[in-house]
Amino acid sequence: MRRMLGLSISNVEFLSAEDDRVLLSLDSLELAAGSVYGVVAPNLSGRSILLRLLGDAALAGSPRSRIGEKRIAWESGTSPLGADAPGIYLGPCPQDSVSTLTATVEEELALHRKARYGDIAGPFSANTDLVDALMLSACLKQDPLCLSGGQTAALALLCALEMKRPILCVDETLAHLDVSLRPVAWRAVREFARAGHICLMADNEYDLMAEYADYAIILDGGQVKGIHRVDQAFNSVEAKLRGTIPSVTSLTASICPQLEALPVRYEQMVSLLRASPNGFRKSRVPEIGNDARKTQDIAPGGESSLVFDGLCFTYPGSDGRPALAEASAALPLGHTTGLIGSIGAGKSTLCKTLNGVLRAQRGGITFGGKPVAPFGHPGQLVAYSFQNPDDQLFQDTVEKEVAFGPRCLGLTPSEISAGVSIACDLFGLASLKRAHPLDLPFVLRKRVAMAAAVAMQRPFTVLDEPTVTQDQSFRAHLLDVIECLTGQGRSLILISHDAEFAFEACDRILVMSQGRCCWSGTREEFCAGRPDEAEGFVNLAVRLSGELDFSPVCPTRQALTDRLRSQRFGRSSFQPGEHGCDSGDDGPP
Amino acid sequence: MNCEAKGWLAKQFPPAVLTLMPIGVALNLAIGTLVQIIKLPVFLDSVGTVIVAVLSGPLPAILTAVVTVLVGGLLTNPVLPWFVGTAIAIGWFSGFCANRGAFRRVWLWGLCGVAMGVIAAVVSAPVVVYLFAGITQSGSSLVVAYLMAAGKTVLNSVLLAGIACDPVDKLLTFLIVWALLRGLPVKLLAQFPRGVLNTRPSAPAIR
Amino acid sequence: MTTMSQPRRHLDVRTKMWLWACCVSSGLLLPSGWMLWAYAGAVIGVSSLVFDRLRPLLRFAIRIVLPTFVMLVVVYGFLVPYESAANHQSDWMERFFLGVFVASAIGARLLVIGTATIVFVSVTPQLQIASGLRAMRVPVPVVAVFVSSFNMYGSVVRKIRQIVDAQRSRGLSGRGLRGRVRMYIPILRPLLFSMLTSAVERASVWRTRNYLGMVGSTELEIGFYDTIVATLGALLVGGAGVARCVGC
């Protein structure tokens, strides 16, 4: 097989489908084989378009793209990059990377080796160590369409590596992997690149990019602002803290001309909320057991807690393995609770049960001491923003979409209007109210889904993976939104594999494992106690608490944030026990 | 097969259509699940075929319908493959109507839905009569029983019952497909060969 | 350490397909009567010995065959006007047995078709079905669509349930007929959007694996011999159905 030395494209323009707006414009781009390029860009800056142009031949040949000169440099000379562009593109939805032509994971990995369908030639040649490291060895006989999101992402990456194409473009696929598996995946991509391929990685986890990539391509507004060696790009403290690099910090403010007032400052949000007549001013709690329209006001930060006791639930056809096994905990109002646990721990099942869409087979739920009957009225106490926003969007405009939930719950028109207005302002959708939700890019659809959940004005709101595919700027903004809402007496429940975001956003932690709640408490207690089940989060929390010389007594969230900012966030080799976090500790002091 | 025929076939079945057809098949078979959840007395077992017809034309729709009955015969109901003639008729007619603009005008799809119901009833009548003696698990069997009790022959009873009941189901199918496609972004419809042409020809040109 | 799978020895898929075709054709061609019942009994009996998981067959018999049988008995036994040969007056016993005769003939044929199909699907891995179709000269793109549909059915059902849960969590409920009809769009539109989006993405995946529509490894090739084999296969099964109609 001839060895590729590099790729060069020049005079590239990619146009919008509806008008002549240029979404991506490159004078020239030269990429060297054997290197990993991290693409650093805020949302809606043309990052996915760049990756698709290099990875998907059809897009490169479409009428919307104009590419002046495109050549591949081989050892023997150069050749044009034609319609059979030798690239692979992995998108942010790993389920779409499954071919559906095979019945098992093993066959899926071997699919590319079939010259004609039906002639699978023996077992696959994948690196079995990598299969084991990505925890797919137990799934080889399973249906690829039945795997979890993380497993599917691992499968997609493995298939792409198996195919050994000259160019590999990965667009946020690794965000679905468990925290502990992401470094494994990055290492595998780096090894693949070292074998003479070009790898482009788009990932909002800049820590990993700083460690494993060779170069950072800075992209903003559809233009390449520069290509830097990654050790030069990511060496500042500010970059590590905010997840941006200095030269991009000012650029992230100009995310998209359609979005206004993003990030909205905390003071602006509070004044918005206070100004609304009936919407978000008080925490509106439906009377237990009655029509959801009747409400009673409770003071923010009051005694009321959502308590669930002994919840049991088993999905039909799941071989008897319970999704919830005597889950019990209390969620107080006015706090942000991080729900952490490995895949299959029961986090989503618990939230669906609290929401009411699933009916627990045993156990009870109370709020403020009174039993709750949510089964007939899903969404009465807990609003849920699902991980995949496309499961919920169907209306013609963003405004109608956000208003759908409140309308179903029977809120008054003024309450609906106030809730919609505030939710759209909070998530930067004020100028997009008339837009069609399905016309928006994925990152904005995700924000619409979150706004729709918040607009329901329930005491508890679940946000499932709110930061997936969102850039650092929106993550910072989301921290402000969360603080604002909890300050108004609402509670948020966050399900997130983004350990650093969860650590910053949540003041309470609930750890789940195998369907039960094995630990619950404040974040400070969690960092000191270190329960064993949440490996990825624990490793991070231990490392952070060790590096920060963190004491359990932390006065305020602001003080913690200040302390985080004053320290370095390096990927230094941390040994348990070095910094006073003895592995013998197993409880709060 | 000569080059011209190959080129024509390649144009009818680009990769986007090849991946669209399994979705049409899966929709045809899985929508029964939704009907059970919502508990409505209709079948809606051709929604996927009509969607493929609107987005790609009659040939992919025919293939979708044929694969539906074959896969359905293996997965859900072993007697489905005997209705392959009905499937071909539904696929061809819905593609024919879609290419003639049935989904661009509000009233036209209604007419086509009724016509498709009549065609489906006529084509499936011989199969029902000669293989199943006129009685299947559908609700129209009650109408067949009544007509037979009134003295009509089996074939006439099945034909009349089909013509009375099937158009309602197919009309609802066309209505649902029209409502669904109306709400989808033009950019997505443009990915398929006839997506924009058959639904929104007045939309601004999409590259 | 990952271990490679060892191939199991199966009956050749073409043999299985011919067995299925012959079994079904015989069930259609045999005249109604004791021969047909004996044949149906033999098919079910042999299948029970070969195939130890009878649940799909039981489900098929209860959900499809039994209701059809009962309705046929009612229709042909009590509703259809009938004159007995003896005295031009309808005799209820004679009518009842006629109804049972017709119903059992149809029921026997349904059971033969159902049993043969269920056993075939149960003992044939999906990969073998695809290989068998290719061996019968079915074009590669058709096989690809067939297999993809087979695999996607379960995931679409799961997706529907996911979307129903997502919309119900926002308070969507259908009360009354009108309410239930209005539930369709909030469920079907997100389903269709995500299915179409994934179709576009998957087209890129298939292109990467050289499934390019009717070119590349999915090029449509039908030769003269392929046409003969396909025609003979269709004649066997379809002709049996036509012969059945003529026999009626």
Protein traits:
heterotrimer; A: alpha/beta; Rossmann fold; six-stranded mixed sheet; 20 helices; 22 strands; 31% helix; C: 248 residues; 9 helices; globular
Helices and strands of chain C, in order, run as: HHHHHHHHH
The profile of the biggest β sheet of chain C is: none
How much strand content do the residues of chain B show?
under 5%
Alpha plus pi helix count of chain B: 10
Order of helices and strands of chain B: HHHHHHHHHH
Helical fraction of chain B equals over 70%
Category from helices, strands and their pairing of chain C: mainly alpha
List the uncertain runs of chain C. Answer: 1-8, 84-89
> Taking all residues together, what is the mean pLDDT of chain C?
77
CATH uppermost class of chain B: Mainly Alpha
CATH architectural grouping of chain B: Orthogonal Bundle
Shape of chain C: globular
- Unreliable spans of chain B are none
The amount of helix of chain C comes to over 70%
As a percent range, the share of strand residues of chain C is under 5%
Question: Any overview of this molecule?
Answer:
The complex is a heterotrimer of chains A (589), B (207) and C (248). With 589 residues, chain A is an alpha/beta fold. Chain A is 31% helix and 23% strand. Chain A folds into 3 domains: 4-251, Rossmann fold (3-Layer(aba) Sandwich); 264-282 and 333-506, P-loop containing nucleotide triphosphate hydrolases (Rossmann fold, 3-Layer(aba) Sandwich), CATH 3.40.50.300; 528-589, no CATH class. Chain A has a 6-stranded mixed β-sheet with strand order 6-7-8-3-9-10, with helices on both faces. Chain A has a 6-stranded mixed β-sheet with strand order 18-19-20-15-21-22, with helices on both faces. The longest helix of chain A has 16 residues, at 472-487. Chain A is globular. In chain B, helix 6 packs antiparallel against helix 8. The longest helix of chain B has 29 residues, at 154-182. The model of chain B has no long low-confidence stretch (mean pLDDT 84). In chain C, helix 6 (140-168) packs antiparallel against helix 8 (184-208). Chain C folds into 2 domains: 13-129 and 240-247, no CATH class; 144-214, no CATH class. Chains in contact: A-B, A-C, B-C. The interface between B and C is large, with 66 and 80 residues.
